[in-house]
Amino acid sequence: MTDRTGLVLDFGGVLTTPLLPAVLAFEKREGLAEGALITALYLDEDAIRHTQELERGEITQREWNDRASRSLGLAPNNLMGRIFSDLRPQTALITAAAAARRAGIRVGILSNSVGLEPWNLYEGYDLETLYDAVVISEEHRMRKPEPEIFQLMLGRLGLAAEQCVFVDDTEQYLPPAAALGFATVHAVEPSRTVTELETLLGVRLAGAV
């Protein structure tokens, strides 16, 4: 056993299948060149700023759709939902989170939002019931990696950072969490992530029922 009694999980790419394959499948469906969406929306400074505004709730998903569609030359209707329509639940991590809770570990979800309307990334995951705390960035006008959003999560869990493990598929969010005292795990491959969590938390999570 360890003295870590908290687990904070990112949502997209941790409790779901990876984001990149979904993006590549979208590009293929829409007839875009491979990498066109990433170049237009995630390597362009204005587009990055718009996405950060979306994550903070400063613009709506519909506004983001309109702006992004112009960059891509595509129809704006439900663009975010179309981009990520191939995402599916990541069963290994969902099962591990449930096992952690049964072992007495408090589990929170800390997610940078992509807006909730017209497409809701979180629909069907029953977050409010299955986890001890849920912090969605747009509802609090802050985003990862800002320290304040991590501190908000800690307050809701009633734990110190040193008692918690933070898991994210975006590597750049890990050092700010570590600076606060979190142990961190870069979610790359689900079975490896679960193994690392078992070591850090001192409980069995893989295949637990």
From TrEMBL:
InterPro entries from the xrefs?
ACAD10-like, HAD-like_sf, HAD-SF_hydro_IA, HAD_sf, PGP-like_dom2
Pfam families, alphabetically? Hydrolase (PF00702)
User: Which parts form a coiled-coil structure per UniProt?
Assistant: none
Q: Which Gene3D superfamilies match?
A: HAD superfamily/HAD-like, Putative phosphatase, domain 2
Known NCBIfam families for this protein? Answer: HAD-SF-IA-v3 (TIGR01509)
Q: Can you say what this protein is called?
A: Haloacid dehalogenase
Where does this protein come from, organism-wise? Streptomyces dioscori
